[in-house]
Design a protein that fits this description.
This protein has about 100 residues and is mostly helical. The chain has a domain of about 70 residues. The protein has five helices and no strands. It starts with 19 loop residues before the first helix and ends with a helix.
Amino acid sequence: MKEKRAVVRSRARIKGKSDWARVTSMSEKEIMRAAKSDPDAQPTDLQFWQFWKDARIVLPAGKHPVTLRLDRDVLDWFKAQGRRYQSRMNAVLRSYMEGHRKTG
């Protein structure tokens, strides 16, 4: 009888850089003032919500697992770039594909 492989995925949270203790201790006014001072994190307004009110979540197509033989130095280089190296490899391959796709 063929054995089934068990796949175990960790549900551990990734530690971010946010100082949640500081945020928790802030008043609503302080939070809004801090948000308004950050050019990359402006608070949303009614116009924003009107534009996105009918938005729907669209999940990307699933990926297919493959076995791929790579040169050791190529694999080591991608892994050295940090987590999600396989996603970066996919992005490189996608860029190559789109650059070489025939038009028309």
